[in-house]
Structure formats: C-alpha cells, structure tokens
Amino acid sequence: MLAQSKENERFTLGFFVGMETQSLGIQPLDTREPEKAAVRSGRLGAGTSVGILARKQLFRGLYFQPELAVSYLKNHIHFQNEGRREFHYLDAELPLHFIATNWRRNDFPLRPCIIFGGRMGWNFAKGSTNLLNIARERFALDLGLGAEIKMGRFRLQPAFVYSHGLNNLHLIGNAQYDEVVGRMVRDKLSLRLSVWRVGK
User: Fold this and answer.
1) What is the DSSP letter of 9?
2) CB atoms within 10 A of CB 12
3) Rounded Cα gap, residues 92 and 99, in angstroms
4) Do 178 and 133 touch, CB atoms closer than 8 A?
5) Percent of the chain scored above 90 by pLDDT?
6) 76-85 pLDDT, tens digit each
7) Which of 162, 117, 166, 195 is nearest to 21 (CA)?
8) What stretches of 29-178 adopt beta strand conformation (E)?
9) Which is the most buried residue in 89, 122, 126, 197, by most CB within 10 A?
10) How far apart are CA 190 and CA 89, in angstroms?
C-alpha cells in the first residue's frame, strides 16, 4: 500500500501527436443570411499538433493531466470585395485535462476513457490584417473520448478531443470589415495519440 501511494504522488511524463481540424464561427451583423454576409468563414481548416504531458493519479480511475502543446492550422475567410484570404494559426497551448477511466478494469488491455477540462492558448502567427482584427489569445472547454491500450509498461491512448472556443476573438478596431462582424470563435476537433510509460 505504501509503494502504491508513493507511485501515485509522482507525475508520469509522456507525449502526444495529433491531427486537427478547425472551424471559424463568424457572426455577421450586416445580414441574417450567412451566405450573403460580407465576411464568411470557409471550409474546415486542417493542421497538426504535438506536445508533452504529465499524468498524475488523483483517485481510483481519475487522473490529472496538464499538457503543453504546439499546433499549426490555417483557415480561409471570404471577404465580399477582396475575395478569399488565408489566415494562419501557430498556437502554444496549455490544456489542463482530467481523465476518467474504469478502475475496475485496470488489468484489461483496453479501457475506455473520458477527457474533460479546459485550455488557454496564444497564436504566434499574425492574425489581424487591415481587413479584420483578430485576438491572439484563446480560451476553450475540452471534452473527449478515447481508449487506453496496455502494451507492457507503455500506455497508448488514441482519442478524439473537441475544443469549444469561449472567448470572442474579434477585436473592434479600424479594420475595414470590423463593423460588419460580431462575435468570432475557433472550435477545434483533434484526433491524437498519447504515449507514456508506467513503472520502472
């Protein structure tokens, strides 16, 4: 029992890689019909992400998992007179996740898991232009489903994680289309694979 409690006090380190898609939610103020708006979001943007994680058991079947991630994505925004423009997102993110698993199936080679928590991030790519002012910071709530695969002393966790943007990214300024755009959010869906090692 003492050995188990000491084990639970330590953080286990690992890493993850992922593929991401991102949608831009742009609220038009000039019309009720999105397809006729002066500013419209394009198709889903695609990208990749990599990161490191630290995992600590809080209770049976519940883990705390802070992460540090870097992701790159790009989206297109359609402007009425200027046509389609490409916007890039190079994000450094700090996700803070809780992982819930079935502790009664600890010896099973495959266990389902639920991921929930939040994240904050900063976009290092230039977002604002003379057409639209976009904030660099992003706050979001995360929810995901995955599976924990036991492979000797290693654990693999493929998972889908949906990240719902909370803050309004549109900054009112002197850009050309600022007056016809209201709220703007970024939602992301990630398919990622996490790997970590347990024991000595």
Assistant:
1) H
2) 17
3) 22
4) yes
5) 72
6) 999 988 899 9
7) 162
8) 39-41, 45-59, 62-79, 83-101, 110-123, 137-151, 154-165
9) 89
10) 15
